[in-house]
C-alpha cells in the first residue's frame, strides 16, 4: 500500500492524542497521512507534532489566503484515497450528516468524492443520545464507514460505548477500506459469546461474570474481514455487531443446539463462558425459605449435573469446522491448563487468559495463543485489538491452508 494516502481530520476531544499514534501505525503499513486539525483538536495536539509525524503541512484555516487561493478545501478533499475522521466528534458527525460547512474540516467533508471512515469518540450519553444515533445512521446510509466506538472508561470517569477505537484497529479499518481487503470473504464463521444461565427456579440461576465483550469483538472483526458470521450469544447487555447473524440463547444446551444448527462453518471461535454444571432439577415455582428458626434445618442442597461440552462436541462433529478455536479462562497455571485443554478437547487453537482480575467485565485482555506449534504470549491490549489480531491470524492460517 506504499502509494496510498489518507486525509486525517482530527476533531476536538481528549482522544485526539491517539491520532498521533495512528499516523505512525499507518506509516508502518506504507500509508502516507496529511492532516486537517480543527480548532478544537488543536487544544489537545499541536500542529508541530502532526507536521513532524506526517512530514507534511498541517491544515487548519478555511480562509488561509495561500491555501484557498488554490481552492485548498477542494484539493485536500480529493487528493487522498480515503478521508479518516479521528476522533469523529458529535459536532463533526452532525455537520456532515446535515450538510453544514463552516470550517475547513466540515467543508472538506462535504466536498470530498472519496470514501470517508469515521472513528467516533464522545461521552457515552452523547453517543447513545437520539440525535447522535440519527446522525450516525444517516451517515451509514450515505456510505460513510465506521470503526468503533469501543466500550471503556471515559476521561470524564463514565464507562460505556463512546471510547475511540485504538490506533491498531483504526489502521486495520483503513487498510480494509483502501484495499477492499476481505481475506475471509466466502467463508462462514461461528462465534459464541457471553455467559450461559442455568435455571434453579423461575427467579434464580447459575451463571458467571462474562460480559460478552471479547466474543462480540471477535464476531465483529471476522465479519469485517468478509466472513459470513453467526454469533451465538448468551444473555448480555451489548448491541450486536452490524452484518452479523445473531442467535440468542440462555442455557448451555440451547447454545450447543444453536451451534450445531449453524454448521457447517469454516471457522468456529468458542469464546462463551459456558456453565460447566446445571441444576439437576429446575423448579417450576420459586423455592421458598423454610419456616423453622433453626438455620441448619433451613439449609438447601443443590444437586448438579454436567452440561454438554460444546467445544469437544464440535471437535467430534461430522461437520467439524476447518479451524476450531476454544477459549480457556483460568485463574492459575493458565498456559499449562490451556495446553492440556487443547489436546483433551480436540481444538486446533486455545486462546487462554487469566481471569483472576477484572478481565471478564473489563475492556482489556492479555492472552496466550496455544497451538500445535507452541505458545504465543500476546501483550496486554484492548479486547478490540485482541479480536483484530486473532482475525488476522485466522485469515493468515486459512489462506495458507487453502
Question: If you had to describe this structure to a student in words, what would you say it looks like?
Answer:
The chain is α/β, with parallel strands linked by helices. It folds into 2 domains: 5-179, 3-Layer(aba) Sandwich (Rossmann fold), CATH 3.40.50; 188-401, CoaB-like (Rossmann fold, 3-Layer(aba) Sandwich), CATH 3.40.50.10300. The chain is built from 14 helices and 22 strands. The strands form 6 sheets. Strands 13-12-9-14-17-18-20-21 form an 8-stranded mixed beta sheet, sandwiched between helices. A 6-stranded parallel beta sheet has the order 3-2-1-4-5-6, sandwiched between helices. A two-stranded antiparallel ribbon has the order 7-8. The radius of gyration is 24 Å and the shape is elongated.
Our Rg estimate from Cα atoms comes to 24 Å
Q: Number of helical runs? A: 14
> How much strand content do the residues show?
15-25%
**Going across the major beta sheet, what is the strand order?**
13-12-9-14-17-18-20-21
Helix and strand composition category: alpha/beta
* CATH architecture label name of the largest domain: 3-Layer(aba) Sandwich
- Strand runs, count: 22
Average predicted confidence as pLDDT = 89
Largest beta-sheet details:
8 strands, mixed
Q: State the assembly state of the protein chains.
A: single chain
Query: According to CATH, what is the topology of the largest domain?
Result: Rossmann fold
CATH class of the largest domain: Alpha Beta
Q: CATH superfamily assignment of the largest domain? A: CoaB-like
Question: How far do the termini sit from each other?
Answer: 24 Å
Residue stretches low in confidence (pLDDT < 50, at least 5 long) are none
Helical amount:
25-40%
